[in-house]
Amino acid sequence: MAIEPLTPERRRQQTREYLLEAAGQVFAERGFHGASLDEVAALAGFTKGAVYSNFKNKEDLFLALLEAHYQRELAAVRATLEGTDDPPEAHLSEFVTLIRDQAETLGDSWTMLYEEFCLYAMRNPSAREKLAAFDDLDIASVAEIIAVERKRYAMVPKESPEQAARIVVALMRGVSLMRAINPDAVDQPFLEALMAFMARAMTTSGDQATPAED
Question: pLDDT tens digit string along 52-82?
């Protein structure tokens, strides 16, 4: 097996990955405000200068970590949908399992971190602008998945993929917050009902016949 050379580019990528992994642990333990770049650098085995060579500040480090987290979630969604001719509603149980597994793996730390950063961003215009831009990219990625599935199955719902994506993102963030406050409220039956509700909303045509008046 050929060994791929450790080029400067690969070394930088590895450094970035180590820093993100360390940041995930530090943010989870300390929160956004309590975490320091010194702690992240020390846990990753680098100097603080290595952090600044990859990220401008703690805001950018947090947003990069958030992006990596969402990319993993989107990759899992795509993997669930790809390689099959079954419509999205046929995968309801798989999506329920996916949500439950992610919740068990991450716990409530991500929900708390996101809410903490949202409050911080509301009071800091620069951070708010960055978070809004990140949200737009996240929604665009979800909209792309929705558009692909609609095209594959010739579905023509009333809402645009972008509108549907915003609804999906808003619902899932609300569910995460609900689970963080009251885990028992987000049980298996609730998740199954949620997925079925979303599948109906995403696939029902907007050209439904209007019931005849009496």
Answer: 999 999 999 999 999 998 888 888 888 887 7
The pTM assigned to this predicted structure is 0.80
Q: Residue 106: which CATH number?
A: 1.10.357
The Cα 12–Cα 106 span in angstroms is 26
Is residue 210 one of the residues assigned to a domain? Answer: no
Give a yes or no: residue 13 inside a domain: yes
